[in-house]
């Protein structure tokens, strides 16, 4: 009887030779138990089916081989994962396979997402070895690496190649660099493409009466906004508070409001620091960004000052606004009939609006904010097995399968997730939104993925919020935040933060580097 | 008992006060029986048209919410309820027991040193966040982290100053001649305190127990910091009811909050007579 591998090889060769249609190829691959993600990607790969199959499934296979060896050696037959509450849905479908095929039990320790960073820092002093794999956001890596609680994964990634930078199925650049590396070394493997994009109500855009009224008033077609000015005008036009319908739902609440500022700031061609670690957000661009936000306040949902991500999603899903700035999970939420009864089938998504730099260049810039990944604890009893788990879960094939599961934060982050999606990814998101995610992600700027990142972020957030509530003028708030930044930099050590900042800035998209002057930093 | 009736103005004010006080309880009760579609409805749904016990069911069967398309709840609350009961009952008993004898000791046999109150209260002078990390290090080294023994030890350490000082005020207010009379009758010091002092400050003892019970029952930070996976309590579990697909699970949180209220309501009801007496004891004596 022919083995499965022999059948697989024959099928691939036959397809390469042109002896099989794409449809029958996919059907045969499915019969052989090859995941749809792999089959799809292989079918359209320019490498040819045989080579593409070996390549795309390579990261998964290499991780599995390592896992088998490490599991056999392991004295502790359990992997313990520190994960944020609400993320388990992407992981549980595979626990049985690890148990039955490797004899390794997966134990998930859930903690509220706001304490995961603290739990990691706590482990740095407690050294309990209770965690093997830890799932922080990208901002945790610098502090965790410096405090010695997680491994530098570079040697493992060089040996087992998780295909992080592959052009066809690697993590989308530049998130591949700024959400996984610290000072050029791999600190974690990304498993969640957290970027913010703009959602609009398609049914309102397609309303002919509104389209005419809009064109009469603004002299252009009613469509998703291309610039922040257009975004403002659309919010103004659609704002209808008498009927409980508001121009936009973006955040003005503590903790979230900094991202609304940072997004606008980078769109104006300004980063958070210059090449010498001097804060730059208290510049004219920063003040203009805050003034834009103050002007928008008039057209925001009344709960904007208290929104959390979930209450924001709830309000948009109930049909209480025309636009929303959301993470990809917000799109999923609004698309599903159970959670977005008023928005299902009525969403037009677009990349974050562009703005103009001082020299008049139109700049598209997104923000990669949050973004979970897997790190390996230095106190793990089975570090190689832990690494194998991280690579296996984030491989192009398994990740494409894991993302659409309910009850997890994981959103598309690899090229194949967005440009060669499986049917399940398409059903969960939509081809248009996956393309939007890709178009936005290639222009993203990282969060404060620096030593002391959470402190910088918190200082900025408090001052921006103070400005939004009217207790500080824009310039005053930003100057105060800049003072706090300088203090944090001094305390942590300017050279240390600068090294990390320059390393981050080196991997920005070219238009952003050019506009911000980061292309000339050294 | 006086039979003077309330004036209409007093009745209105009392009614308003009751509405304000009971509104959160009403809202939690209603949210606990709302289906997910009603949790965040706007305008708010005050009383669910189709009440359900699915939120309570989810506490013990995490997949119950699946029928509403909400996945991602992974842990039943059973362990948290058990953990809260265990940690609270044991630590409250220990805290009140030790506090009672400390109070008698200070009140009856102390040297009236002014530094004693300061020393006892010093444990309460630091915000919990400031002392949590040192405890993590110490407990990690002695193997008490992620254990109920460690959590109970912390709870006793944190509440003992309260129990000591609350009970001391009750013992202080008791004329020592009553105990001396028992001793003249031939009772030992310990027997005199057990048979005279303690029964006479029963109201204060119940009030203190209730107060310490509430403190331990609602404690969040130490439980969060000292736990990995072996221990859990209700306040920590409440913070974990967030899923990627539905956000904060307000209904499930409310259901657990309702369960968390039950012991307090029962204990409060049973000791209400003593509670009133205990809380006003000092005032009457003064």
UniProtKB/TrEMBL annotation, chain A:
GO cellular component: periplasmic space
A GO term, aspect molecular function: iron-sulfur cluster binding
One Pfam family this sequence matches: SBP_bac_1
UniProt-listed PROSITE patterns: TAT
Keywords, comma-separated and alphabetical: Iron, Iron-sulfur, Metal-binding
InterPro entries tied to this protein: Bact_solute-bd_prot1, SBP, TAT_signal
Compartments where located: Periplasm
Chief location: periplasm
Family the UniProt entry places it in: Belongs to the bacterial solute-binding protein 1 family.
Entry-linked PANTHER family: ARABINOSE-BINDING PROTEIN-RELATED, DIACETYLCHITOBIOSE BINDING PROTEIN DASA
Descriptive protein name: Carbohydrate ABC transporter substrate-binding protein (CUT1 family)
Lineage, highest ranks first: Bacteria, Pseudomonadati, Thermodesulfobacteriota, Desulfovibrionia, Desulfovibrionales
From TrEMBL, chain B:
Cell location: Cell membrane
InterPro entries: BP-dep_ABC_trans_perm, MetI-like, MetI-like_sf
Ranges that cross the membrane: 12-33, 80-106, 118-142, 148-167, 248-271
Membrane topology recorded in Swiss-Prot or TrEMBL: Multi-pass membrane protein
Gene3D superfamilies: MetI-like
Superkingdom classification of source: Bacteria
GO term, biological process aspect, one: transmembrane transport
Keyword Repeat included in the entry's annotation: no
Alphabetic keyword roster: Cell membrane, Membrane, Transmembrane, Transmembrane helix, Transport
SUPFAM superfamilies referenced in this protein's UniProt entry, alphabetically: MetI-like
This protein's record includes keyword Transmembrane: yes
Family the UniProt entry places it in: Belongs to the binding-protein-dependent transport system permease family.
Protein name, per record: Carbohydrate ABC transporter membrane protein 2 (CUT1 family)
Lineage summary: Bacteria, Pseudomonadati, Thermodesulfobacteriota, Desulfovibrionia, Desulfovibrionales
